[in-house]
Amino acid sequence: MYFDTIAAVATAPGEAGIGIVRISGEKALEIVDKIFRTKKERKLSDFQERRLTYGYIVEPDTGKKIDEVLAVYMKAPYTYTKEDIVEINCHGGMIPVRRILEIVLENGARLAEPGEFTKRAFLNGRIDLSQAEAVIDLIRAKTDSSFDVSFNQLEGGLSKEINEIREILLRMLANIEASIDFPEEDIETMTYEGLLDEGNNVLKRIEKLLDTVYTGKILREGLKTVILGKPNVGKSSLMNAILRENRAIVTDIPGTTRDIIEEYVNIKGIPLKIIDTAGIRETEDVVERIGVERAKSLLEEADLVIVLFDVSKELTEEDMEIARLVKNKKVVVLTNKIDLPPVVSREEIEKILPGKKIIETSIIKGEGLEVLEDSLKEMFFAGEIKIKDNTIVTNARHKSLLLKAKKNIEEAIESIEMGMPIDCIEVDVKDCWENLGQITGDTVTEDIIDKIFEEFCIGK
Ligand SMILES: Nc1nc2c(ncn2[C@@H]2O[C@H](COP(=O)(O)OP(=O)(O)OP(=O)(O)O)[C@@H](O)[C@H]2O)c(=O)[nH]1
Ligand SMILES: [Mg+2]
């Protein structure tokens, strides 16, 4: 494959200690030899490769110094892109970096597209597609756990599993071919039994990967946690307590919160997307009513609902309605304001929300919050999740391909069990193999590749 020479700024824009301009392609060294000089007028190619060399970027015609830099030449194929790479470390800041990039472009490089370096790493066969996708996830990771998952994927955790499953599928295809080619050998019954075993094995492994999708989604997007309750029970106080800042307005006037407030927070390693809502009640106020409707509709997509009751006052019809709304959801109940003289007993709450976890709290005094945080963790990850040695699927593209592959293999298994002609089975096994191959990029089309790398940042 032939590629031209590309260049881009690899560091984030703005003030910083250093900035890096990265050049990849056949002409990388030739270009830098035109614009780099040491104090003794030597070029980068006069030095050993992979050695950081001190010098200046200069205008080729006039010799005028642009910036003081350290430059390094890395020879193909042991580089990020598997091509020749030169990196120029200059002073950080907008001007030096931009000037050096300009001079590099004037001397024969083309400005790289977003993700083009990583795209080349993929096209040149250093990493597969799921590893390339892990690069962008690493850069974007917002929690330690999502970083760990992406790192595992970059190291080839997912690829290894997919490749192993695909090898079984290949073996199945070979057996099918053999029995098509030699039908008279009467190996058919044997083939069917073997195929069934292997098909079930494939199905089991695909299902195991799909089982991690929910955890993966949480690690990536946060556990969607909606705080619900009638007005004035302390929802916004809880939001602030969890965030440890005064994010939401808290007053003793019922109906204070009218819109949805969303924030990300990490609780004991679980990323939460926590959502404070308007207190649920019948109201004449138009704005508040919209807020109440929004709160209700949010329930649909919630992974978890934290429901609050004020136990210093009698339960009302509003509390009953809230209990009905969350009956079928994953719920933690907080009986709040236990610092005040109690009017409602725990039994009464148990009666309207049977079987749900109940925690007594005084948010104002910080009581019960530790218990809440511990039970959130328990509820979602029975036992510690070991991301480091587990392959977790976080990517929506991978999920949809795994679902397709699952359907393929299920259909193949069904055909085997029904004793269908062997070429009917072949189609499904082949589709399964191809769908899985799209995850690693083995069977992927160019437009999908382009779409994936468009998401990247420039310089990566
Ligand atoms: N005594 C006591 N007061 C509390 C407790 N938690 C919250 N409050 C008070 O209850 C009042 C209402 O708190 P908010 O957090 O604004 O209640 P909310 O549920 O968000 O109310 P709306 O936004 O109107 O739906 C405030 O005056 C809080 O200080 C608690 O544990 N004990
Ligand atoms: Mg509020």
UniProtKB/TrEMBL annotation:
<feature type="binding site">
    <location>
        <position position="256"/>
    </location>
    <ligand>
        <name>K(+)</name>
    </ligand>
</feature>
<dbReference type="InterPro" id="IPR027417">
    <property type="entry name" value="P-loop_NTPase"/>
</dbReference>
<dbReference type="InterPro" id="IPR005225">
    <property type="entry name" value="Small_GTP-bd"/>
</dbReference>
<comment type="similarity">
    <text>Belongs to the TRAFAC class TrmE-Era-EngA-EngB-Septin-like GTPase superfamily. TrmE GTPase family.</text>
</comment>
<keyword id="KW-0547">Nucleotide-binding</keyword>
<dbReference type="GO" id="GO:0042802">
    <property type="term" value="F:identical protein binding"/>
</dbReference>
<feature type="binding site">
    <location>
        <position position="22"/>
    </location>
    <ligand>
        <name>(6S)-5-formyl-5,6,7,8-tetrahydrofolate</name>
    </ligand>
</feature>
<keyword id="KW-0963">Cytoplasm</keyword>
<dbReference type="GO" id="GO:0046872">
    <property type="term" value="F:metal ion binding"/>
</dbReference>
<comment type="subunit">
    <text>Homodimer. Heterotetramer of two MnmE and two MnmG subunits.</text>
</comment>
<dbReference type="InterPro" id="IPR027368">
    <property type="entry name" value="MnmE_dom2"/>
</dbReference>
<feature type="binding site">
    <location>
        <position position="236"/>
    </location>
    <ligand>
        <name>Mg(2+)</name>
    </ligand>
</feature>
<dbReference type="InterPro" id="IPR027266">
    <property type="entry name" value="TrmE/GcvT-like"/>
</dbReference>
<dbReference type="InterPro" id="IPR004520">
    <property type="entry name" value="GTPase_MnmE"/>
</dbReference>
<feature type="binding site">
    <location>
        <position position="232"/>
    </location>
    <ligand>
        <name>K(+)</name>
    </ligand>
</feature>
<keyword id="KW-0378">Hydrolase</keyword>
<dbReference type="InterPro" id="IPR006073">
    <property type="entry name" value="GTP-bd"/>
</dbReference>
<dbReference type="GO" id="GO:0002098">
    <property type="term" value="P:tRNA wobble uridine modification"/>
</dbReference>
<comment type="function">
    <text>Exhibits a very high intrinsic GTPase hydrolysis rate. Involved in the addition of a carboxymethylaminomethyl (cmnm) group at the wobble position (U34) of certain tRNAs, forming tRNA-cmnm(5)s(2)U34.</text>
</comment>
<dbReference type="GO" id="GO:0005829">
    <property type="term" value="C:cytosol"/>
</dbReference>
<dbReference type="InterPro" id="IPR018948">
    <property type="entry name" value="GTP-bd_TrmE_N"/>
</dbReference>
<feature type="binding site">
    <location>
        <position position="87"/>
    </location>
    <ligand>
        <name>(6S)-5-formyl-5,6,7,8-tetrahydrofolate</name>
    </ligand>
</feature>
<feature type="binding site">
    <location>
        <begin position="276"/>
        <end position="279"/>
    </location>
    <ligand>
        <name>GTP</name>
    </ligand>
</feature>
<feature type="binding site">
    <location>
        <begin position="232"/>
        <end position="237"/>
    </location>
    <ligand>
        <name>GTP</name>
    </ligand>
</feature>
<feature type="binding site">
    <location>
        <position position="257"/>
    </location>
    <ligand>
        <name>Mg(2+)</name>
    </ligand>
</feature>
<dbReference type="Pfam" id="PF12631">
    <property type="entry name" value="MnmE_helical"/>
</dbReference>
<dbReference type="InterPro" id="IPR031168">
    <property type="entry name" value="G_TrmE"/>
</dbReference>
<feature type="binding site">
    <location>
        <position position="460"/>
    </location>
    <ligand>
        <name>(6S)-5-formyl-5,6,7,8-tetrahydrofolate</name>
    </ligand>
</feature>
<keyword id="KW-0342">GTP-binding</keyword>
<feature type="binding site">
    <location>
        <position position="126"/>
    </location>
    <ligand>
        <name>(6S)-5-formyl-5,6,7,8-tetrahydrofolate</name>
    </ligand>
</feature>
<feature type="binding site">
    <location>
        <begin position="251"/>
        <end position="257"/>
    </location>
    <ligand>
        <name>GTP</name>
    </ligand>
</feature>
<dbReference type="GO" id="GO:0003924">
    <property type="term" value="F:GTPase activity"/>
</dbReference>
<dbReference type="Pfam" id="PF10396">
    <property type="entry name" value="TrmE_N"/>
</dbReference>
<feature type="binding site">
    <location>
        <position position="251"/>
    </location>
    <ligand>
        <name>K(+)</name>
    </ligand>
</feature>
<dbReference type="GO" id="GO:0030488">
    <property type="term" value="P:tRNA methylation"/>
</dbReference>
<dbReference type="Pfam" id="PF01926">
    <property type="entry name" value="MMR_HSR1"/>
</dbReference>
<dbReference type="InterPro" id="IPR025867">
    <property type="entry name" value="MnmE_helical"/>
</dbReference>
<keyword id="KW-0630">Potassium</keyword>
<feature type="binding site">
    <location>
        <position position="253"/>
    </location>
    <ligand>
        <name>K(+)</name>
    </ligand>
</feature>
<keyword id="KW-0460">Magnesium</keyword>
<keyword id="KW-0819">tRNA processing</keyword>
<feature type="domain" description="TrmE-type G">
    <location>
        <begin position="222"/>
        <end position="381"/>
    </location>
</feature>
